[in-house]
Amino acid sequence: MTPLWKVTLVALGILGIGHAAARAQAECSGLAWAELKGDIDPTQHPGFAPVPDHLTNKQDIYLRTGALEALEAMAAAARVDGINLQVVSAMRTWSHQRRIWNGKWNSARFMGFTGAARAAEILRYSSMPGSSRHHWGTDVDLNALENEHFESGAGAEVYAWLLENAYDYGFVQVYGDMRNGRTGYQEEKWHWSFWPLAEGYLRCYLDLCPEEAFTGFEGAAYSDSLRIIDRYVQGVDGPQ
């Protein structure tokens, strides 16, 4: 049986037909599903580079080279304006995302929920392994992982600067406040996606995603009923 999300893709025309399908096929020809689900080692991949120390206090975190070059340019412009941008998280492998997911699944915080309800609660802010945009190396978390950080003081100044300037460098806040009807993850003021690469990677992800995409972690069986592809993977905001 064809999965619901692939039926939805055709119905909504997200990939479309004719030239749109040909475009997706062409731009995805050099990509394998393993790469889009984060099943790679970025330290050994020629398309990735380490985030330099002046942009993060983390060790061994990587981005796609194009995303990193744009980020460095954006951070330099921000410094001129007195804004300090620091990378908290960048590319995540499938195994890394699995550790995050399973850690939450088995934590006391989520023990009050069972089955699909537990998965849905975790999905407010965390992706199932194999569905995170961080797998692609195009997305970064900046400065903090709480919306409250960006609502006052220096954090509010950082967020205001990003809203005003980030897209000049190709970065988009893909998880906005949901007032436009966006589905999926809650607002994340820290999560910024390098749109010139990520837009194409999303098309490739949808084109290459197999029917049994989500296995090997706690709660994977609920991925279909929670509509991970059409509600979460596709639940993003684009450039304004």
Number of domains: 1
CATH architecture label? 2-Layer Sandwich
Low-confidence stretches: 1-21
How does the major sheet shape up?
4 strands, antiparallel
In what range is the share of β-strand residues?
5-15%
What general outline do the C-alpha atoms trace?
A: globular
Taking all Cα atoms into account, the compactness measure Rg is: 18 Å
Sequence of secondary-structure elements: HHHEEHEHHEHEEHH
**Separation of the first and last Cα atoms:** 37 Å
CATH class: Alpha Beta
Strand order of the largest sheet: 3-4-6-5
Mean pLDDT: 91
Helix residue percentage: 25-40%
Q: CATH fold name, please?
A: Muramoyl-pentapeptide Carboxypeptidase, domain 2
Query: What's the number of helices?
Result: 9
SS-derived structural category: alpha+beta
Number of strands: 6
Notes on the protein architecture:
The chain contains 9 helices and 6 strands, in the order H-H-H-E-E-H-E-H-H-E-H-E-E-H-H. With 240 residues, it is an alpha+beta fold. It has one domain (4-233): 2-Layer Sandwich (Muramoyl-pentapeptide Carboxypeptidase, domain 2), CATH 3.30.1380. Strands 3-4-6-5 form a 4-stranded antiparallel sheet.
Summarize this entry quickly.
The protein is an alpha+beta fold and 240 residues long.
Write the topology of this structure.
Blueprint: H1 4-12, H2 19-27, H3 33-36, E1 48-50, E2 62-64, H4 65-80, E3 87-89, H5 94-105, H6 115-122, E4 139-142, H7 153-165, E5 171-173, E6 191-194, H8 195-208, H9 228-233
List keywords for this structure.
Muramoyl-pentapeptide Carboxypeptidase, domain 2, alpha+beta, four-stranded antiparallel beta sheet, two-stranded antiparallel sheet, 6 strands, 240 residues
